[in-house]
Amino acid sequence: MKLVIVTGMSGAGKTVALKMLEDMGYYCVDNLPISLMEKFVQLTIGSPGQPSQVALGIDIRSGQELSAMDALLQDWREDGLPLKVLFLDASDQVLIKRYKETRRSHPLAGRGRIDDGIAREREKLEFLKKKADVIIDTSKLLTKELRQELEKIFLENQNFDNLFVTVLSFGFKYGIPADSDLVFDVRFLPNPYYVEHLRQKTGEDAEVQEYVMQGDTGRKFLEKFYDLLDFLIPNYILEGKNQLVIAVGCTGGKHRSVTIARALYEHLRQRRELGVKLEHRDIDNDSRRK
Fold it and tell me: Which domains are seen in the chain, by residue range?
């Protein structure tokens, strides 16, 4: 039997994750009283006709019982139960936005402010986050991207180091992305903007990529770029970071930054323990302004 405990911040996607696990063949139970969990698992383990994959959802709604999960998880692990704890998280700003969009009240906010409820919830769930085997920050994830990450972890049994990397191309003339962790300027590379037949193309086109990478400068930069990130990423993981935004900028965000961001994405996606996605923030800005 495989057991997954699905938990995390209210509004971070726990219900969605449980539905996805159900689609993957897991028998899912949400908000089962913690006092019944141990008995439920005992009845399920090794019993003929019982599901072989179970996902149990718990969250702040468990109230005073929540603290009992600490000892229960320890007991299950000492007994050698095949157990994973999945913790869904998101930034405070994103959680507040989601609550305002759905017009729902936070379970700990009462008639007070949402951010106060979120702060109290983080404090109460901190022990579960520390015990989590997998932490996924859904702040920037589309539903299909969350599904892809869950499938890699729970269907394909790939290692996952709790770090989701967003590679983001942008144009400096439109401003540096506010959520960037690392910013790289590639305006030193050959600029296809000044080549008439390339101007309307983007760094997703092979002709543009070839132009940007002409000579040896682009290749040498990518080698050093990869080497730096191959050093940094394991250290970010050790530090406990679970979201990393790498922003690559050129003047307009259409040619050079797109080319380099695409190359970096292809390099990082080979590391199967990472979640990686690629975004081009300004690739269409010029066409939208016409």
Answer: 2-154 (3.40.50.300), 164-289 (no CATH)
